[in-house]
Queue: 3 jobs
Job 1
Amino acid sequence: MNPVIPKSTFEFLSKLNQNNEREWFNENKAWYEQEHAAVIVFADAMLSSMQAHDQLQTESGKKSLMRIYRDTRFSKDKTPYKPRFAGSFSRVKPQLRGGYFFSFKPGETVVGGGFYGPNSDDLKLLRNQIAQDDEPLRKVLNDKAFKSMFGVLKGNQVKTAPKGFDKEHEAIDLLRYKSMYVFREFKDQEVLKESFFDETIKTFLALRPFFDVMTEYLTTDLNGRSIID
């Protein structure tokens, strides 16, 4: 039997969203721990299933989860908690690139992955590779099944053109990206079904063509020679 996201998990997150303050959270800490434990079970099962299909370095479902506590030091939003349970699975680097991501939140659940904050060297190489040959990436992004599941490419972008690239470059729409990822959105009623677990795995597996192209870009030079040991 597949693990499920309990209805009570979304009830807790909805209440937290309405009462996003430390006093309420502390009064309901036991409820939080209960729902957190349920999500850990779900994340452990996702990780175990994906390990049969990919090489992942994330050690456990618990370690995959992000903190619910918000860092408010440099944010205009001073609410202390993020009313969602989210996490990620990292692939073994440097041979494999990309990461899987999930966020369970009432009205805003997404499952997907990509490249959230490539370092400057990776971003430079990625842009050079795309500038030289963007066709492999476009083929994935324009695939009918891929677009049906994920929609359009997401990520932060520069406004005009990155340094060193002509704003009229034929691939400027891709070169502008500073991060690249895709999400599949789920309705609450879909998340709370037993079939949701299978759908998360199906979604993760659908990312592989995207990851394969990006891994090729990031592990070879412009002549196609490997740059990793």
Job 2
Amino acid sequence: MASLTQIAVTTRKSFRWGLYGFISIILVRAALLSTISVYKRLNPPPPPPPTVGFNLLPTINFPEVTSELPPLEYKIETPTGTFPEFPETMPVYLMPKASISISSADSAITKAQAFGFGSIPLKLSDTLYKFLHPTIPSSMEINIVTETFSTSYNLAADPTPIKTTLPTPDVATSKAKSFLSKGNSLPEDVEDGTVTHEFLKVEGQNLVSAISLSEADLIKVNLFREPINLGDEKNPLNYLSLPPNPDTANIWAIVSGSQDVIASQYHYYPIEKSKIETYPIKTAQQAYDDLIAGKGYISNLGLNRDGKVTIREITLAYFDPNIQSQFYQPIFVFRGDRDFWAYVPAVTSEYYEE
């Protein structure tokens, strides 16, 4: 019969070996989970196949290049010296098409009145109306179908707006947004987007860039659409929304020293983010080959009149069109020395209409 001492020793040994076993299980489990995690990082599951539910896409509506370009020679000098890698697929979004209705003209009149213009339009075409301001030399042109518009001011007839001290850029931004809000023309994805400023001065009949606020007569406020975020709150993955000219937003306003908006442009087309399909995209090398072949859009030549361009950065973005388009599509962006910018459609060529 075992003594109490023997029972105690046996119990302690059993407890010790049980503890060792428990710790071993924990360590083995941790090692196994770590190994699985490393394996998943090194061998991620293949991405889901593209849905291509919009079928063939229309080519992107890049603007016509109005100035003659020199023959271009490109050289790649990215930070790594190689082409960056990108996802195999990217989303394409539907852009709802505006259509004319029996209330289109009335809606345009209501919008013009909200901005302080008269209620009797001059009909420039079936879809383009012009409104005059009742007290100042200002006018507004609005497309009654898309509700895109522009406003202008005749400074030659009344230079009063440029005879007072300009506000700070932040105040000018606030004034621009307040102005657009009058006509319900400040979409949420623009209100939360990037804002840039340009100082302008009057030279003869033209507005030209000024070096600083102290030299400027006016401030131009550019309101860009916010980036497309394909990540989440913890891991955002933002792709810029870029207009035809990367320095000029599709929505802008020029603010005077009297803190009034004397000119503006609103070329905004909504995105239906719930209607989305994915499409295969090119590699950076393929996009670069298209750029060399002249299949891209030179959005800003910069100071490269000699035609020799050094590319420093290649990224993905979305093209924000300044005319009505069917889809919001991804593009490759090539940025180079001396403010060079170029865009190339990102979706592989076989998914574009002929």
Job 3
Amino acid sequence: AVGKTSLVLALVSEEFPNIVSAIIQLLFEVKLPVPPKAEEITIPADITPERVPTQIVDFSMSEQTEDQLVSEIRQANVVCVVYSLIDPGSVDSVSSHWLPLLRKHRQADKPVPVVLVGNKSDASERSQLPTVLKVMNSYPEVETCIECSAKLLHNLSETFWFAQKAVLYPTFQLYRPDDKELTVQCRTALTRIFRICDLDNDGYMNDRELELFQRRCFRVPLNPQSLEEVKQAVKRRSPEGVLPQGLTLKGFLQLHQMFVQKGRHETTWAVLRRFGYDNDLRLCVRAPPLRVSQGCSAELSYSAWHFLSTLFDRHDCDRDGCLSPTELQSLFACCPMTPAHAPNCTETNALGWITRSGFLSQWVLLTYLEPSRALELLVCLGYTYEFENPLSAVQVTRERRLDLDKRQTSRTVFLVKVMGAKKVGKTCFLQGLLGRNLQYICTLNRTQTPVSFTCAPVSVYGQERHLILEEVDHSRAEQLSPAELHECDAAALLYDITDPDSFKFIAHLYLNLLRPNKIPAVLVGTKSDQHETPQYYPLSADEFCAKYRLGIKPLKFTCLDRVSTDAYEKVAAAANYPHLKGLPLSHNDYTWKLGLAATVLAGFGFVAFRHVISR
């Protein structure tokens, strides 16, 4: 009786059903009343404002049961509750029956948006909006209300547009009508967005940042006059929202509150979705699938390197080249999935604050080990605000096998497995890469932060490379599979020169594991500050190196006082140029020289880029 079916049929035919029935009755002398229920109707996407297909489902109490109604409610994205403007009882039933029923049968405490539709405005002399607005304030799931007339075809398309809008741009998650404020979830999301768009991290969005925000979110420029009008509108509502430096966070939130209050919540939703939020204001940061085939590796691209370098500089407020705990917290404030800080893995200062080099190395390590997680974190931090495609942050190298065939590589990150018997100094060797001596290593809190990996830049023939050292426990070393071995670029085999039993462990590893799998290896004698003891092995360390072409003799390493970088540079060189393994550097053999020169030239551009960034 309220005209639900008439609304649906009038929308589709653009004619009131009773008029059509009257004409047919006059011509053919048959009575065609309005049916109690319209058939399901699908409106194609190409004729709707938002270009989404819309299915309209009518309901009739005379033909359907309450169970069928509940089933339809649970499948619906939005419900239009229709009442008659000429029937006070139907107006009262909106709050006394229909809205409580919808709440009772909603799924998992997730309210379905509701549009209240007052029909038969052509027959009513008085609007019911004042009464309905009170109902809206009591039921936040009610998105809007509208009065229409199926007979006069008044506000029909608007009614169904509001229904679409309630699904695509719901206000329930954005705004609390009872206290006229943005919801906590909305404020949190917009605060994160403000921090990302505040490119200089000064707490304000200046004109340049606002113009960039407009282009990135809406694909259209913002002319100076419109920008000034926006700022003045905010200032009238909130004088503290606009200061000479620019739009404050308070002003940014006020601007979006004004959008919602004026019925332009689609503008706020456009911003939220641009930064990865779904309809429940959850941040969806799942990166596109990234495939790293066996034998390949993932590295940061130029754009990601630039983004992270700029991000560090933006939050290094005191310009001391380190991030204090407060500065680090500020950097990750817009990231709900903050990674655990691992000071034992990359370079820090004496206070344990991560340095610029350590910060970038941590990202190099994460990208190498977990490229998908690195992508997700970069998206959280706002990478896609500057570079639209998240996959542009990571580049996948070609297979190591091809590098060996070509005798050159464009890779800049190398993984070296550090192996040796128990207590030969593997942990010290890993920490030595970060410039830490034995005294410092003894202070490390190994119960809180893992030390399986360290990562730092090293120089290889004048080029910067990132070296990742992975400590392999002595009990697991002999069980490494060929697949695990081929994940690395080289192995550092450590033995204690003061322990006569330690060399045979790495000799056995090399002969039975590394040599058959053609893994480049470098022998390192640790604790070289002490007196060397002859090893219980048929060959001396020097003779072993000479026989298997592993260099003239083992490298010497100590971290008792000052750590030398020489051992790490040679280990990195072995990983960078595996085809030179065991080749004598004679004046008559030019093959290694040509390969080295080609690789140096290939990497020159990348080194120059990093040099510019570091400056």
